[in-house]
Predict the 3D structure of the following.
Amino acid sequence: MSQPAEGWLERLQTNGYRLTGSRRAVVKIIAGSSKILTPLDVFEQARASHPGIGLVTVYRTLDKLEQLGLIQRVHQPSGCQAFAAALNGHQHLLICQRCGKVRYFSGDHLDGLVGNVEEESGFRVHEHWLQLFGLCNDCRN
Amino acid sequence: MSQPAEGWLERLQTNGYRLTGSRRAVVKIIAGSSKILTPLDVFEQARASHPGIGLVTVYRTLDKLEQLGLIQRVHQPSGCQAFAAALNGHQHLLICQRCGKVRYFSGDHLDGLVGNVEEESGFRVHEHWLQLFGLCNDCRN
DNA sequence: TTACTTGCAAACGTTTTGCACGATT
DNA sequence: AATCGTGCAAAACGTTTGCAAGTAA
């Protein structure tokens, strides 16, 4: 099992959740994936190591992981059902539209822009999304 | 009926679609709205001017308007069912999280950032989303 | 032992489809 | 007149909920 999965299980436990076979299976899948996964993807992959798991449990576990900030929902032009492992701190997403591979990047300099927009619009901005979509090295061929 | 609605109806017609009471009602609602609207919102508002309209027709008309680039789906942390009138050319969204009011802005300088990210990641970027979420002047109180 | 977690079945809200009738061109 | 569009009902889809049985602590 990958490094992050261990930490995730610990986080679940210290937050009062029990460690069960189903939860271990779900955590193992998403924590170890570099691609975005839908609940159904997770369900199908988790069944390999934990055959009796139910889709409902996948949904419930994903909810908890999202609440703990360990995963986040990824919105795309093609749909918004997939999740990716989350990073600490504010990062932006780069997503391969063919295979679903995700990368995070930082280094946007939006403070000035946000200030300008606030002034012109009268809005107060609380959050922003910056996402890049394209094809990864492997999928470009 | 507002100015944009006229142009939208023309666009529908020149693309081979017939002008019907239902379509006029749907176009009138979204073309004239500064807020994002779900299909159900459109349905309820359209019933005022066209009582017999069905929700299915709203869905079908929204599909066509989206294909023609006249409206676009707006993704938010709270959901992705709403649509907004689209602008010509590439613009970014500013959305009020309380009332759904949308504004467009330009002036992002992301070319350099995109170039850096492409170089570091090996991805080829084809599209980007930049969205700001906050509260508009009216909703800040 | 207790409370939490599970999988199943059923319910739910949203969106899509099949179809016969109606309307636009 | 021919084709396209409509509304209804039903189906499909992803997700959530109720519940009795099972399991971690």
Summary: Chain A has a mean pLDDT of 95. Chain A has one domain: 3-140. The longest strand of chain A covers residues 124-135.
